[in-house]
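Weekly modeling sync, notes
Attendees: S.R. (lead), two postdocs, one rotation student

Agenda item 3: backlog of single-chain predictions. S.R. asked that every request posted to the team notebook include the full sequence so nobody has to chase files. The rotation student volunteered to paste the first one in as an example of the format we agreed on. Action items at the bottom.

Example entry:
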Amino acid sequence: IFDNLKKEKDETMRRVWLDLFSRSTFQTKLGLLDQNIMDYSNDLYVLYQDEQVDSLKIKLASITTSLIPEKMVFELNRDINKELKLTIIRNLKHAKSDKISSELISLYKTEKDNDVKITIIYVLGEIKGDKVADALIQGFAKETDYEVKITIVNALGKIKGDKVADALIQEFAKETNRDIRIAIINVLYKFDL
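Predicted structure, as returned to the notebook:
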């Protein structure tokens, strides 16, 4: 399948081969196929970089990020379109490494687009960790956007811990927005305090 995908020039046929490869990747992860998809990861990365059709590039990004997240996280530093950026970020949620959380935290701190910020925060909540908690606690204090703040509260709710609970209690005391205060209460209610 992969060999056909690599040499295919017709966009429609590349899409078909890519769909087949995507299914075989998923089946391999489930243990239904015996091939080693990781053998293709570098070639897949090259295909991703060379692809000119946005919809195919997004599909390739999704597959490639799940296979080699440490390489794909650096694609976020390039000038890429929003949909591609969101696809890569979403697919990083299962990659729990310090390098990836550090890159996402850096991106969060510099990102201007709230949709991208919200996606980063959601993924950071899935990754968890002390460094993530610290970054989100600091971010909450600086953020002004309602949706971003609510997303941070929910992400912190997934991380939990005494430090997170203390920070949320402090932010609750300062917060004036009723809905954000309710979100903080709802998250704290789920903690074992």
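Discussion: group reviewed the output briefly. The radius of gyration is 19 Å.
Action items: rotation student to repeat for the remaining queue; S.R. to check formatting next week.
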